Amino acid sequence: MQRHAIGCKWVFRIKQNHEGSINKYKARLVAKGFHQKHGFDYTETFSPVVKPDINNAFLNGLLEEEVYMVQPLGFVSTDSTLVCKLRKALYGLKQAPRAWFERLKAALVHFGFVPSRCDPPSMFTKHAIKQSTFILVYVDDIIITGSSKSFIHQLVQHLNLEFHLKDLGKLDYFLGIEVLHSDTGSLLLTQTKYIKDLLLKANMAGANSMASPMASNTKLSKYGSNYVPNPTFFRSIVGGLQYATVTRPEISYSVNKVCQFLSAPLEEHWKAVKHILRYLQGTLHHGLLLKPASTTVPLSLTGFCDADWASDPDDRRSTSGACIYLGPNLVNWWAKKQTLVARSSVKAEYRSLAQASAEILWMQSLLKELRVPISVPQVHCDNLSVVSLAHNPVLHSRTKHMELDIFFVREKVLNKSLHMELDIFFVREKVLNKSLVVSHIPAQYQWADILTKPLSTARFLELRDKLSVSDTPSV
Fold first, then answer.
1. What is the DSSP track for 263-286?
2. Which of 332, 329, 389, 336 is nearest to 360 (CA)?
3. Is 223 helix (H, G, I), strand (E, B) or coil?
4. Do 95 and 73 share a domain, yes or no?
5. CB 188 within 8 A of CB 470
6. CA gap 389, 396 in Å, rounded
7. Is 377 helix (H, G, I), strand (E, B) or coil?
8. What is the torsional sign of CA 452, 457, 460, 462?
9. How confident is the model at residue 31 (pLDDT cuts 50, 70, 90)?
């Protein structure tokens, strides 16, 4: 097969610090990888997707395929018919991320690190006598943490021999997330600059603030008002809000709700988006607070799960919400619309419980791999019937109704209806073998309530504090 040289171009950008000042001017030669053909000049494109900074990381990747590129502008030989044969990866090539990662992985394994079994694409661990070191990789950015400062220094030196890198010191800015350190050891993760840029993009930098991201009486529907004039702009802003939930768990429900109307957004949906932006305008410096925990006793792994039954006015599907804490710190949360209609509140709550249980058990495996001691995980639910169902090994009347419902819909959605039946036995098995504790809590202590429905301002602010959202990095 005849080979063709792919094109290239220069890309110029200004890299800014988290406070908006100029860090440096960057010029990068980028290959036009969209001209490549799968199976011919590239095969796999996998890229693991978190602070030494590797300079020109992709240029360290070694190419296994035969790739040719036209001469770059400004560096053209006297013979313009010549082309460049690439021996190393170049930004823009489809296989460049994978080639770089394989090179980095080989270097880390040679230094004694092992890829994580629970999170193999991005995390590496190394355990030795009385010390542990963890590496988290996101493309060409690396976070290193561990119990031995001297070993981390050796590791950075080792990587510097293999790749040209910069040790940026204490972590303070990563992927748009600002890290504020306190004297007590607490960390406050914020996205102040990111949210300011999003407000500027939405032309709402000077908007009046709101006390909560969504009014308690809000009922959004795909019917009722005119379509927005610029749906692409709507999708862009909502997409930006999704990333803001990384450090702002209290807006997860509101953002999830407006995300359900991306295909045909209405004016009412845009009003809801502006309400969220107004709330963020008034809480720019809020973020997720992480507190130091005692290492003398095993850490607790605790989940809160909830569901708002048949809350969607268009299809009557329920909304699940959950938050999971490791010790005093919130480490995982979500607000999601369920994939099937629940014919009772028990079903809706049990699906939420099953999802939270599965996530907690995965986290338990991860923590075991990291050699972090934890007590038996617990999940709190405010529905007594669901808690009873999780503990009762006999299929009582409520379970029978669930099975009947499963057979009722199995003809059309067999692959999904089986999930409910499996959820029952999955949770029950974990409870019976004492690897999971499911307990009941009163509704007023259900912290996941903020992730399933719009709340009054007073209730929202109360639960926001429970999610460890703060504007100061103090305990």
1. SS-BHHHHHHHHHHHHHHHHTTT-
2. 332
3. coil
4. yes
5. yes
6. 8
7. coil
8. negative
9. confident
Q: What is the pLDDT of residue 43?
A: 55
> Which phi and psi (to 5°) does residue 217 adopt?
-100, 15
Shared domain for 17 and 152, answered yes or no, is yes
Q: Residue 258 is part of which domain span?
A: 189-282
Report how far residue 182's alpha carbon sits from residue 186's, in angstroms, rounded to the nearest whole number: 5
Output DSSP code: residue 9. E
Q: Which of 167, 198, 220 is the last residue of a domain?
A: 167
- Same domain, residue pair 357 and 383: yes
> Contact, 257 vs 453, CB < 8 A?
no
CA dist., res. 183 & res. 474, Å (int): 8
Q: Do residues 138 and 199 both lie within one domain? A: no
Domain match, 263 and 306 both: no
pLDDT of residue 218: 94
pLDDT per residue over 317-371, tens digit each? 999 999 999 999 999 999 999 988 888 899 899 999 999 999 999 999 999 999 9
Residues ≥6 apart with Cβ < 8 Å to 251: 213, 241, 244, 245, 276, 279, 280
Q: From CA 67, how far away is CA 31, in angstroms rounded?
A: 11
Looking at the structure, tell me whether residues 277 and 305 fall in a common domain.
no
75 versus 265: the higher-pLDDT residue is 265
pTM equals: 0.82
Choose among 297, 301, 306, 295: nearest CA to 435: 301
Write the CB contacts of 39 (distance below 8 Å, at least 6 apart in sequence): none
Q: Which residue would you say has higher pLDDT here, 284 or 55?
A: 284
Residues 214 and 124 in one domain: no
**Does 157 fall in a domain?**
yes
pLDDT by residue (tens digit) across 3-22?
778 887 888 888 777 777 88
Average pLDDT over residues 78-99: 81
What is the total count of domains within the chain?
Answer: 3
Same domain, 244 and 122: no
The structure tokens listed for 422 are: 């499996």
Nearest partner of 89 among 77, 80, 102, 76, judged by Cα? 102
Contacts of 425 (CB under 8 A, 6+ apart): none
